[in-house]
Structure formats: structure tokens, C-alpha cells
């Protein structure tokens, strides 16, 4: 059976930037380091008035098809994962297909289109659907286009406001992929949770502190289930560990806990025993609280060791470099983390071909998923062609007043009308509302 995985990837950020330390913190009366050190975030990406989930997704997909020299009938499936949709019936993938048909020969009439929903984990679920479709032999030689796109905005003054972001990741899922091939074992951690939801509203209702606990609990379950399914979790066997990144500080917490879990009973625990002791075992404690306290103390000592810090800097820190500058992209976030890690590896000359990634996805409500991926020989030339660094540098910095005016545009109210702050150039743009309440798009040369 041939390998199936990601054959190409493109990222599109919103064109506006809110600097958290310089612009956001003074308005909120907060120490800038709460954002830069505490949350690990420097800036958020925002879409301009003519950008939204469709334009960002279509612009990423358009560049991907051009770059891979693909015609529309090479695509047999388009799935969009989003939690920022503006229609409960017509999927965003139909709008994206309509955009692509405006500028490419042929059509996408024989491509199966859909929309995936499960908070941020739906991006990974859509990738998984594409994998299964190809593995089932139903693709007739065609590839799947998966687009994870969100305007991840919170209500003004919500504690989540500092973690906002907006952007899209377009991925081509195909046989004999150039970037990564997916491994077979998968782990899930899933439970009915009320931590972050959007009950028929664009800006979420969030219990932020609880959402962090749920993230850690479900990720742990998914890791255990992945091990149960035969997945390897030895930390030294992974070149990079991309996780869903609502903000880098969340991944920093998860990484310490995950590393402790994964080194239990390995030579790493043995080698560190002289320095920090062995991990507490539950059978040694009558009281559960005492056990948890002992585990916490051990984890604090573990994350202070040189061995852990070297591992974290090599496998986790590189995956956070884009997220730090753009904020949370919800469905796209873990896919941005993968690209960020590979990009830094490419720029620093690491030879990763054949090595493994451990990918941890998460969506509130709540579900985590864990699987491994294998880096393919074509990864360097794919990553080399990304223009995300230029896009980030070209963003227009917002004043706080501009931020206030642009924020509510993305609540998708027909009555909100704000002048754009940048000029579109060779891209799809939102072009007003149609007679049935649909959104219209056009390509601007
Ligand atoms: P908050 O209450 O404003 O922040 O909200 P805080 O007071 O907890 O401070 C944040 C961190 O900064 C803390 O670090 C502080 O100590 C530190 P910690 O103790 O946790 O390690 N700090 C400082 N550090 C240095 N210098 C300073 C300073 N001041 C404070 N001066 C919260 C934080 C995350 C709750 C908020 O941003 C929020 O509600 N975010 C939205 C929810 C979220 O992102 N949850 C993450 C897990 S759920 C998830 O990932 C799913 C999601 O993507 C949605 C989906 O699936 O669709 C969100």
C-alpha cells in the first residue's frame, strides 16, 4: 500500500497585526510580559475588511494548486474545517470552490465537498477523512484539498481577547506525499465538556481556566490511547512535536506533563534519577492529593533539568515560532505548528528526512487526537517555497482604535461597514452581500 499524507501546504495570514506588548497591553493596563512571557504571544493576526474565512482559504488553496501545477479535475474532494462559518446549510467549501473556478480552467463539479465541525480538532479530522477516502481507494487518482480556516476572535474584553488570530492552512492530501506520511496508530481522548462553545454566535463563550484543564486531561487520554494502539511515545524518537497551540504557554505546560508521562520506565528516567529522584508511583501513596503533589514537585524538577530543556528547545520550541506572531487560528493551529517546526528545521539545516513527528490535535468541547507522521524526502523543497515569513513581515500594524473598528466586522453582520486598511493585490476578496444573504467573492488583479 502506498503512503498517504500531506503532499503540499500553504498558509495565509490575515493582513493586519495587533502588537500585544506595545498596543494591546497599555490599553488593558496589563504588564506586557503577561502576554509575551506568560502566554508566550507577541502579536495577533487580523483579517482586513475584505478578508474572511473564504478569502484566506481560497487564497491559500489557489497558491497551492498553482505551485503544485494542478488542474481542478486533479481534486476529488474539498473539505473545510472551521468554527467561524456564517451559514448553517451551505458549506464554506462551496464558496472556496466557486472562487477557484473563477480563476482556473475547468470546474470542481465532481469533487465531494463538505464542512467539518469539532472546534479546533476538526482540521485534523478533515485530514483524517481525506486519508481514509484515499486508503479506501475511492479517490480515482485524485487528491483531496483540506482547508482549515478561522477568524478566531473573542468578544471585546473577554480574557481570550489576547489569544485572538486569523488565518488559513490549505493542505493537499495525496498518495506518495512530499511533506509527511501519516502513521497508522491513532489515540483519542474525548468527553462531553462545557469549556468553550459558540451557541449560535460568532464570538465564543469561554471558561478559560477550565478549558486549560480540559486540554491537558484530553491530551493525556489521547496519548495513553495512542500507546494502547501500539504508538511509540519515546520522546527521543521524535524530531518535532507539533501540538494544537491556542497560545505557546499552553503547549509549554502540556510538553512538561507529556514528557514526564513518556519517560516513565525508560532509560531517561533512570539517567535523571541521581539528579531529581524517580517519578512517584501511585501505589506508594494512600492519599491521592499527596500523590498529585509529589507528581507536581517531580515535574517541576524535571522541567528544570538540562536534559528536558534541550529536548524542549529541539522538538517543541520550533513549532511555536509562527503561532507566537499570529495567535490562535483554531482549526489551523496544529497545522501551523507542524509547518513552523519544519520551517525552522529547514532554515537551520537539520536533516529530518525519515524522522518522526508526534502530532497532538485538540478541540474544545472536547477531543484530543494523537498520531505520528514520517517526514518525506520532498519536505525541504516544499517548505522552501512557503512565503509565510514575508506575509508576516508585510502585515499592517493596527492602532488600538483601528483594532476596535475592525474587530466587529468579523461578526458577519450585514450592517457593519468598515473601510479596509490595506489594498488587495492579486487575490480573492469579499465583495458584498447577495440577495439571499450569501457572501460574494471576486478575484482582484
Ligand atoms: P488570564 O486570566 O487573563 O491570564 O487568561 P492569567 O492571569 O492566567 O495569566 C496568563 C499567564 O501569564 C499565567 O501563566 C500567569 O502567571 C502569567 P501560568 O501561571 O498559567 O503559567 N503572567 C505573567 N508572566 C510574566 N509576567 C507577568 C505576568 N502576568 C501574568 N507580568 C487564559 C488566560 C488562557 C485563561 C485566557 O487567555 C483565555 O481565556 N483564553 C481562551 C481560552 C484558551 O485559549 N484556552 C486554551 C485551552 S482550550 C483550547 O486550546 C481550545 C481553543 O483553541 C478553542 C477550540 O478548540 O476551538 C481555545
Task: Walk me through the structure.
The protein is of the alpha/beta class. The chain is built from 15 helices and 16 strands. Strands 5-4-6-7-1-8-13-12-11 form a nine-stranded mixed beta sheet, with helices on both faces. The chain has a three-stranded mixed beta sheet with strand order 3-2-14. Helix 1 crosses helix 2 (32-39). The longest helix has 21 residues, at 208-228. The radius of gyration is 22 Å and the shape is globular. The protein starts with a strand and ends with a strand. Bound molecules: 3-hydroxy-3-methylglutaryl-coenzyme A. 3-hydroxy-3-methylglutaryl-coenzyme A is lined by residues 31, 33-34, 37-39, 83, 119-120, 159-160, 162-163, 196, 206, 208-209, 211-212, 215, 244, 246-247, 249-250, 328, 330, 362-364.
Short description:
The protein has 445 residues and is an alpha/beta fold.
